Amino acid sequence: MKKWYLIIDIEKCGNCNNCFLSCKDEHVDNDWPGYSAPQPNRGQKWINIHGKERGQYPFIDVAYLPVPCMHCANAPCIKAAKDGAIYKRPDGIIIIDPVKAKGQKNVINACPYGAIWWNEELGVPQKCAFCAHLLDDGWMKTRCVESCPTGALSVHCVEDAEMQEIIKAEKLEVYQPEHKTSPRVYYKNLHRFTRCFIGGSVAVRVDGKDECAEGATVTIFNAANKKVSQCVTDNYGDFKFDNLEENSGKYTFQIAYAGYDTKTIEVNLKKSLYAGTIYL
Amino acid sequence: MKSIVNTLSKSLPLANLLFSIVLLGVRMLFGLTAMRFPFFKSRLKEKNLTVQIKLKDNSRGRYFAIRDGKVISKSGIYASPDVTMIFGSARIALDILVPPRDQLAMVNAMKSFQLWLDGTDELSYWWMETLSLMLNAGTKYGTKVGKDVIRYTSNTNGGPVFVYVKDGRIIRITPIEFDNSDAKPWTIKARGRAFTPPRKTTISPHTLVFKSMIYSPDRILYPMKRVDFDPNGERNCQNRGISGYKRISWQEALDVVANEIKRVKRNYGPGAILNGSGSHHLWGNLGYWLGIRLRFFNNVGWTPVVHNPDSWEGWYWGAMHHWGHSMRLGAPESYGTVEDCLKECEMVVFWSSDPEATSGVYGAFEGTVRRQWLKELGIKMVHIDPFYNHTAALFGGKWFAPRPATGNSLALAIAYVWITEGLYDKEYVARHTIGFDEWKDYILGKEDGTPKTPEWQENEAGIPAKDVRALAREWGTKRTYLAAGGITGFGSACRCATGNEWARSMVCLMAMQGLGKPGVNMGGMQQGTPLDTSFYFPGYAEGGMSGDLAATALGVSLFSRFPQLPTVNTVYQRVPRLNIPEAILDGHTYGYPTDSKTIEGQFLRFDYPAPGYPPIKMYYKYGGSHIGTMPETNRYVRAYRSDNLEFVVNQSIWFEGEAKFADIILPACTSFERWDISEFANCGGYVQHSFNQCNHRVILMQHKCIEPLGESKSDFQIFLELAKRLGFAAIFSEGVTEFDWCKRLFDATDVPKVMSWKKFLKKGYYVVPAPKEELRHPVSFRWFAEDRLKDTPEIAPLPADYTEQVFRGLQTQSGKLEFVCSSLKRFDPDDPERPVMTKYIPSWEGHHTTELFQKYPLQLITPHPRYSFHTMGDGKDSWINDIKDHRVPIDGYYYWIVRINSKDAEARGIKESALVKVFNDRGAVICAAQVTERVPPGTVHSYESAAIYDPIGEPGLSPDRGGCMNILTPSRPMIKKSHSFAANSCLVQIEKWTG
Fold first, then answer.
1. A146 and B177: CB-CB below 8 Å?
2. What domain count does chain A have?
3. Do residues A54 and A18 both lie within one domain?
4. B761 phi and psi, to 5 degrees?
5. 20 to 30 Å CA-CA from B585: which of A51, B449, B497, B836?
6. CATH code at A234?
7. Can you give the pTM of this predicted structure?
8. Where in the sequence is the domain holding A237, given as residue range(s)?
9. Is position B280 annotated as part of the catalytic site?
10. Which of B309, B321, B503 is nearest to B973 (CA)?
């Protein structure tokens, strides 16, 4: 049986919020019996976009992580709900039955991703239902995917085996795998949000003027003095080592540039770090 | 049938006979329509009247007596009809009455008094509208998609949409996905790859939230009167913005407005009525501010509010003198640049350019996929912007953050490196430019003793000299596109004290690098798609049904295709928009025109009041945007509260901004509640072929998706009701409905050649096929770089503006790129604010204005907002307010955001999402702080265009918590000899708000 998956490419997400807004358009004031009760006008974020700035001025990047219901294969909310109020369809979509779930506020705490919201007025827990009411009507994609202008979001209805191939080929990951809920929402370039970088700029003095050191070789070593990576500075003398673990301790990097003494710098990595301009 | 009628009616007796037969036909049609359509049957019950249709000489006629829904019709002349429709001859009558109506014949007949209506405007128009409803009864539109849902189409400032309606209510708004019958898209082959855009339209966030805005609790649903306003007694002008409103009837509201128009004209003479709009209105060729509004006011006689070249400032007042392009307000053309960029370019410099935030203009996310292609091809990107903008964030690349309003110093330093290291195109400069040596001397410091070195620049823009050299060397050796501004032109840097000099230096840099050579051009993939420009469909600046040949581009192409009565404003007085408060409060001001005809148009100063004209006594405002969008806007608040303005009426959709300062509020409906017709991102006029921001030309019927909410009415209907009271309903409406005007405009375009009205109306859109590869337009400026005649498809410059030969050279006097501007040498060679060549001029409000800078050490920039557009999308309880990066809810109130560097925040004890007061001598705004690395220390960032003005105390004198950052921005023009807006030169201080 084919199942629905959502793939989100962090690199392509610009925080335009079209996904969030189209979800509101689809659900605020609209009742889809059997699928979802109307979303309140304010306060709920069925696809919740988290932002992260990395680095320090002027060496930064920014990433956005849209978090909908993960439609987990092993969904803790199903277990937390009474009377089968939350169930998994054969196509993998997790539905909160708006009638049966009435009054079951406790299920919102069952979700480790904070993807279930409480509707105070109607007294029901609510969340992204993967636009199942539209898919059942013949739509080929969800509202968020349809309105995404960058292709950051895409839906795929595939056999599990096929999905495993996509995961491998596209290097997809799940967000916060430690929850062990087997989400059906996969991320690409997740490190832009979850991991950190070390960057810097290399400069030299030439004829009394500062000049960017292009082509310097920068090698980075971890606390165990094991080489982690190597790169060459660009025309601004800039280098960047990405995909490092936050709070991963001491790193040293060596800068080698023809005609200058090699320089070694030690840093203690907590979060993304710009080492500033390093003069050789 | 029409051709048979035309042939037969060549004989006069036959024409007369046919006239009688046609009238009999009309009579029969009444019966049939009433039988088939219940709405028409009840329509006939609305009024009892007798209508005579006859020839002028009374030789033939038929009258229609409508009594309690029944129509009795007899051949002959009725003694005392309520309405008489008179035709000069049977032939004229046949041209007009036999479908398809000959519009030109009708307009000609009206102008020569061969078609006339006798009777009150009220009954006459009712009769004409009834005829229209009869002829259009049974018209089908929209697509049934099952479950009682109908899918309509509409168009917005942020892209075209499908609108799903059930039981008279909008349930869903989506982008348009094309079907198999729609035209296939273009493909560009570059560097071994093929690039094809997706077969759909994109839409902006402010478009996606229309449902929340249409059903907003802030909608004005009935006419209102300020409680302490009495047109016949105390007006209490000082209480505008303070006292509340009470509901009144349309009858009363329209009577007050019409009577005030008459009173003001009677008491003061022509021109005492001021009308203005915001820079934007809801989309549509008929309904935009250059359409219906002008038709109405031209017939009233009015003092127009003259728009500044809003968002084009530095291009218009500065760059234009170097390269012309007056038709584009000084911004360049962009034909063929998407293909050229993909094939040839090695680097794109985005300078004050954030198309991911501003959508170009009206372009939704159409350019995004193209910039993704650049990234896929590994074409380098550089971003120069005091804010790490959204284009930089999405695509990456080196970021430079110059101090606001100093960008020109960075440009001059780049030129210095190019000159001293020989990194510019000497042959091109020699052949295609004038004045370079003089400018070179200035750059090298021979003129003022200060070489404009990267080190000199450090004290101005603050970019490390080594980085400037690295950038200049890379730019000087790579084929580079310059995206200066969010389209080609535009950009926050052109809206500051030194905006002219920035835009001017952009042109000069490109002149040094061989503008027009392969891979060397203007743009950041936002414009220049290979679309068919020959297929005619107008943009809104072509004036729609305005009839206005002076204030719109109607005369260029549309007027000869779209017969309509011309309209003329007989008042010569004008008020510059940025100086409305001075006009009202001081009684005098001056401005310079926004004139796209020729370079010199901008030199013609005009004064207010104009000779022989009265001061403004009545202000008829269209919408509520000025407090959020104009500079130093407490001025506008104070002007509203002045006794000098005897009457203020606002025709607005939402109760927001300055709408709350009116005496009478007329509730207008949105474009989803009325008919209109338009094209995606086609504004025409000042951005000719602006649809080439899109991946597809999409032409749309803007269906009337739902009935107007509450008692709100379309702008057309409101103006029509007033026109009836002022005796020009027939001239205003030409006796037809909004729906008919859409059909008339449709007929004026090329769409009928490829799609019938019936099909267009039903389906709602048409995709214009892209031309085949061999017919694509040449690249802009290529002809110039290659010394050929101009071969890009724009009719600008006008023939007289060429010097040597039509199509040879640019619009400048020399026909070349001018480093030293001939036009400025002629106009004012010694103007220190605008020298004949671009120089570094420190901002009149910046880090060199020492005393002020000490008091207000932060430089605030307020570019166009990202999620909202102008004031659309913001406030109104719209969902945009729920976006984390748009407003921040604190204790239930949604605050506007100011972005501050972590160091500046720490120094002030300001934490993320803390409430802060942003202030200077001009006022104060309460915002939520966003602590960020996206601005350097010393620079703070917010957006302009909040829709909400919410002073916590006395309006105009107390802090605003609505987020109108423009309360803080200076009203001083960039240069005195301009009508310009320098919002991005704004010194402020920020402190924690504890109020």
1. yes
2. 2
3. yes
4. -65, -40
5. B497
6. 2.60.40.10
7. 0.97
8. 198-279
9. yes
10. B309
